[in-house]
Design a protein that fits this description.
Blueprint lengths: L1 H17 L18 E9 L2 E12 L2 E8 L2 E8 H6 L1 E8 L2 E5 L2 H6 L2 H20 L8 H14 L7 H9 L9 H17 L3 E4 L3 E4 L1 H50 L24
Antiparallel strand pairs: 1-2, 1-5, 2-3, 3-4, 5-6, 7-8
């Protein structure tokens, strides 16, 4: 009995979500995702969450769709009993936001369009708040260090100015009022690093980390270490000078206090002498 009710709820939720199926390819980040408003239905394997079954249509006694296993895609059909054993995930793509429902009951009961609009309003509030903050520009070394870290992770790493800004500020930087100005700045930084040989490539195909960049980073680290040593020596010198000044001030303060507060005059001590005893007769 409970299984039949659960199956009806799940099929009803899937049928409702499939009324707004997503296209085969769609953007997920702003600004291109601003017009999104559709659902994607997934059935996940509890033992292997990476194995995702994307529902495309309901059929008699089951569902049909695409399954991804170990990077391979295939079209299969899933029976109702296997569908109940899988984990349901319905994703509502709405105006750049993603609202996830993990049960049929929550999808059917919650006002998902209102939920998506609340999520979208919260996202836009965060974007406006971030837009009120100035984008801190990273210098040439910070850009080169980013290329170095990314190249260690992926030897084919290649970016242009807009993608570089996304690395520093995230995808929602598109809405920032300093977007065009900051992008022009990073385009100049990339061209400058390319002219010095630190980066390879061009502004069309993208820039990659060059061998000269490693030499530049090594030289920067040596200069930074030398500068840090100089700063430590300066701090030590300043500390010793401050200590000498403090001791001098204490000595001067003690001298001034002693001059203003002289010691009281000493009272002479009175010594009492006992009278000599009388001698009775000489005995002569």
């Amino acid at each position: 009995m409970f299984g039949k009710i659960r199956l009806k709820l799940r099929r009803k939720a899937i049928a409702t979500a499939l009324e707004k199926r997503p296209p085969d390819q769609f953007p997920t980040s702003l600004p291109r995702a601003a017009s999104n408003d559709f659902y994607s239905v997934h059935l996940l394997n509890p033992r292997s969450p990476r194995d995702s079954f994307i529902v495309q249509r309901l059929s008699v006694g089951g569902v049909a769709g695409l399954i991804y296993q170990k990077g391979a895609k295939s079209t299969v059909r899933m029976r109702d009993d296997r569908m109940l054993a899988a984990t349901l995930l319905i994703i509502h793509y709405y105006a750049g936001s993603e609202v996830k429902y993990r049960s049929a009951l929550s999808f059917l009961l919650l006002p998902h369009h209102l939920t998506a609009r609340i999520e979208d309003s919260w996202l836009r509030f965060r974007l406006r708040w971030r837009a009120s903050r100035r984008l801190v520009r990273q210098d040439r070394i910070a850009v080169l260090q980013l290329f170095y870290r990314k190249t260690l992770q992926d030897r084919t790493y290649r970016v242009v100015a807009p993608h570089l800004m996304e690395e520093f500020y995230g995808w929602n930087y598109y809405w920032h009022p300093q977007y065009a100005e900051t992008q022009a700045y990073y385009d100049l930084v990339l061209r400058s690093l390319h002219q010095t040989g630190d980066l390879l490539g061009d502004s069309t195909a993208g820039y990659t980390f060059g061998p000269q960049g490693l030499t530049t980073l090594d030289r920067y680290e040596e200069d930074a270490a030398r500068h840090a040593d100089q700063r430590r020596n300066q701090y030590a010198t300043h500390f010793l000078a401050a200590a000498v000044v403090l001791v001098s001030l204490l000595q001067a303060g003690v001298a001034i206090w002693a001059e203003g507060n002289p010691d009281p005059p000493s009272v002479p001590s009175v010594q009492t002498t006992k009278p000599a005893p009388e001698v009775n007769g000489s005995g002569l």
